[in-house]
Amino acid sequence: MIDVTRIGFDPLIGWPWLYALIAVAGLAWLAYLILRGRAWLTRGLALTLLAAAISNPAIIQEEREPLPSVAALVLDRSESMDFETRTAAAQAAFDSLEESIEADGAFELRIVESDTQSDGTNLVAALEGAMADVPRDRIAGAIFVTDGQVHDIPEDTSRLSDLGPIHGVVVGDPDRGDRRVEIVDGPNFGIVGETAEYVIRVEDPRAASVLLSVSLNGGTPALVSVPTGEDTPLPIEIERRGGNVVVIEAPPGDEELTLANNRTAANLSGVRDRLRVLLVTGRPNSAGRVWRDLLKSDPSVDLVHFTILRPPFKQDITPIEELALIAFPTEELFEQKLSDFDLIIFDQYERRGVVTMEYLSNMARYVDEGGALLIVAGEPFAGPASLARTSLASVLPATATGRIGTGHFVPEITEAGQRHSVTAPLSGQNWGGWLRYIGADAKAGDVLLSGPDGAPLLIVDRVGDGRVGQLMSDQIWLWARGHEGGGPFAELIRRLVHWMMKEPELEERRLELVAEGDTARVRLRTVSDIAPPLVIETPEGRRMTPDWREDGPGQFSAEAPIDQLGLYRAESGGLEAVALNGPANPREYADLRSITDILQPLASETRGGVFRANESGGGLPDVRRVGQRGDAAGGNWIGLRERGAYAVRSSTSQPLLPGLLAALLIAVLLILAWQREGR
């Protein structure tokens, strides 16, 4: 304890009024001196004594307990510290500084570590949290032990001046290089089929350009050469609705701290503008209106529907103006604007001279290049005018046998259909029967529904970049009309059409990867009984091979522990999936160099310093006590301010100018002034 005596003031009026009174006293003294009044001294003394009495001075005796100044030692535990020997060097430097500060005995030391789960190195937040309950007049300063990559330093560092001085001790090899790629700018969503513009940047001081691998949704990568150190535009075509993952990879450079930042990714949400469908009905039939109503009920569908009522070769005496018909725009539909359609449906169509063989060849190329074709077979499909007897047969998964079966039967989901995404959710339901079947032999693709005696009823196939479906009956409209309780007409067609539109959630062979927290979860959907081996690649290139667990027909899942932020990749049987654990571009991997540039402005603002430790964490500056003002760092020393804070344990007060004494003295001075002026 320390005894201290001081003079204190407890004004009888507010301080502003007291200041005003003192100012008046000062002006009075000045006036009396200039004008030389006869009682200038006594009046000035009286006014001064009045101001002194109102300020209520007292002699205060205090018993004070000195309080130690509080210093913080902050250790960087972020992922960037795991490279080279940074973790060991930082721990050695931390232990040495801790020992030096505690040996001094003048400081209360608070130990702080950064949050290992946050995106980036947030040492300032850790420091502010540790000092939140410490009065600012007790803070001695802080020392960061880090690799120099600190991500939460504010632009206005002056607000941290009351936490200073803040010093940095940087570990790591300053000459070690690292190639890295980053996405500077890019959209979050776009229209399917259109191009999204990204801006990328590759940093590598040892190369003029780098050949990047760019892939979308785990597909075949494209190679793009970009200059280093420059923002480079990169167009990406959006291929599907929903989530799209853009992955950009750079090969290893001459020097690498890690390959984790050679790969970056972005999530791009695809939005389908409108689904353009061409429906060609070969002749009026019971299913025509059902198909039209189903497609028109979806506001996202632009439907063009033609029903062929009168073939061009038909001759009669009916005047054209009375027919009220238009010529079928075959050239416009099947040559000029064929690629504008997302899906083409032929409902019970037969060759009647409307769509020529040349146009059918165009349609086969349309499918091979990514289009979608659905054939709803009727009786004409079994005859000589069948589409199966044209060049379109090259893309059809089933050929006609020429047989037309009649009689009651109920469609059944096949074994392949139990695993296929189109029909698997529809199993276990009671369906109404159909009355006609068009005989066919499946030569490719997957048979999802079967008819009488297991004959193929619904067949789907991938052809080139496109997709084809064949329904070997014209009776599906019975389900829409509720015959025998009906069936999942709308749901089946919706799922079939969306599969043909390559919607990711309806892919029959699909690999999904989700990386969250400390677990990577993988799901596989396949039409096979056996799941191919699974390989998961971590951001650093390490491979894991977890075992599959069967969840149902064609459904498999697996899990693996993970401990890093960044991009993970899964591969199984030629299928690939990518997922991000944490943000798309973790700040922790954006720059892994050991640098002092980031900490220097903060240290300069708070009058601290930035120093380098050697490879083993040695070669540290001395830790010294410094005063309240001035710089707190030198050539080879770190200063922590000794604040001299204290707590008052007891206090007594004795007035210097009691009110009665003050009033008496003021009265005496005023009487003397009157006496002087009255002479």
| Count of all domains | 5
Per DSSP, what share of the residues sits in E-state strands of 2 or more residues?
25-35%
Q: Which spans have pLDDT < 50 for at least 5 consecutive residues?
A: none
Distance between the termini: 59 Å
Question: What's the total helix number?
Answer: 14
The assigned CATH architecture of the largest domain is: 3-Layer(aba) Sandwich
Question: What average pLDDT do the residues reach?
Answer: 84
Radius of gyration: 43 Å
Query: Structural class of the helices, strands and pairings?
Result: alpha/beta
Strand order of the largest sheet: 16-15-17-18-24-23-22-20
Major beta-sheet overview: 8 strands, mixed
What form results from the Cα inertia axes? Answer: elongated
CATH class of the largest domain: Alpha Beta
Helix fraction, binned, reads 10-25%
CATH homologous superfamily annotation of the largest domain: Class I glutamine amidotransferase (GATase) domain
The count of strands amounts to 36
What name does CATH use for the topology of the largest domain? Answer: Rossmann fold
